[in-house]
Design brief:
The protein is rod-shaped. The chain is an all-alpha fold. It has two domains: about 5-80, Rna Polymerase Sigma Factor, Chain: A; about 100-160, Winged helix-like DNA-binding domain superfamily/Winged helix DNA-binding domain (Arc Repressor Mutant, subunit A). Helix 2 (about 15-25) runs parallel beside helix 4 and helix 3 (about 30-45) packs across helix 4 (about 55-80). About 70% of the residues lie in helices and about 0% in strands.
């Protein structure tokens, strides 16, 4: 295929490429970026195209491969590796709220509210917050699992009630 014909065919294919890009990205801006990246890649690799190959299929395959590679790059960049021994950091919230004095004060308020509970509610609720499973709490407190669940539920409701006006 001659250079002029190659570029003419590529220009004629732009609306099909735009539609395909939108079907991949589901976002107009990302589709336009993908269209531009594909057009540049096709122009850079026009010497690799042979006349006996379906031009539209060749171009759309390049687009799909660019989309897949970009997606993999995004996933790879967003993956968090926890290199601590017990994988503790994976379970930590990303925003602890301790950057401001108000955040630290709210933690103090929550702790005071929890500590004001009777032991029969405070202990199972605190253990649950620390990550103990219902079964473990029931065993350690020598209580039926239903009682543990009920006390945790009631403690949670009481905490919500005490802090409902707090903002």
């Amino acid at each position: 295929m001659k250079n002029n014909q190659f570029e003419k065919d590529l220009v004629e294919l732009q609306s099909n490429m735009r539609n395909f890009a939108f079907s991949l990205t589901l976002n107009r801006d990302d589709a336009e970026d993908l269209l531009q990246d594909t057009t540049l890649k096709v122009l850079d690799n026009k010497d690799k195209f042979t006349d006996n190959i379906n031009f539209k299929g060749w171009v759309l395959t390049i687009m799909k491969n660019i989309f897949i590679n970009n997606y993999r790059k995004i996933v790879r960049n967003q993956t968090v590796f926890d290199r601590t021994e017990d994988l503790h950091h994976l379970n930590l919230p990303q925003n602890s709220g301790f950057e401001t004095p108000e955040g630290a004060y709210s933690v103090g308020e929550i702790s005071n509210s929890i500590n004001s509970f009777a032991d029969e509610y405070r202990i199972p609720f605190s253990m649950h917050i620390q990550g103990f499973k219902y079964e473990e709490i029931a065993q350690k407190m020598n209580l039926p699992i239903g009682t543990v669940k009920s006390r945790i539920f009631l403690a949670r409701k009481r905490l919500q009630e005490q802090l409902k006006d707090y903002k």
